[in-house]
Amino acid sequence: MTERTGGCMCGAVRFTATEVPDRIGACHCEMCRRWTGSALLGVTIPLEKVEWDGEDHIGRIQSSHWAERGFCTKCGSGLYFRVTMEGDYSGGIELPVGVFDDPNGFVLSNEIYIDHKPDSFAYAGEGRKLMTRQDCIDKFAVLADAPQNAAPTGPSEKEETR
Ligand SMILES: [Zn+2]
Ligand SMILES: [Zn+2]
User: Fold this and answer.
1) CA nearest 55: which of 111, 102, 103, 93?
2) What tens digit of pLDDT does each residue of 113-125 get?
3) Distance in Å, CA 123 to ligand 2 centroid
4) 2-151: CATH, from 3.40.5.50, 3.90.1590.10, 1.10.1740.10, 2.40.170.20
5) Which alpha helices (DSSP H) does the chain contain, by range?
6) How many angstroms is it from 92 CA to the middle of ligand 1?
């Protein structure tokens, strides 16, 4: 746990995050793949532990019925993934490791949607927790059952991803 600063490519959006865990996760879902161009390597921090500077330049896209992604409206850098639906997974914000000024010192501890990872690359090291797409759907089904989403109409496969 430590304080880390970061920001987007152009510097319009900056942040200071406190009590940043050193454990990070990778998501190989299709949405993260397209959003990042590879996989989302991120660290999850309570919302209130992140202080933004230049918040006017943060654009937000509701990427699924339960989460949004923030980006810099000037340079396009991806800044965060956040669960917007009330419940067990709200209240946290996932910052991509690459937006930190010093992205060193993190430990990759889990990979999700591992069965969707392209065969073109793999992260080094062993001992990580791995979850398939189905594992994730089983785990996050709690989100789909939340009262705020009581009457979803024909959820598409996209909505099942992050
Ligand atoms: Zn920017
Ligand atoms: Zn994802």
Assistant:
1) 93
2) 999 999 999 999 8
3) 16
4) 3.90.1590.10
5) 30-36, 133-144, 157-160
6) 22
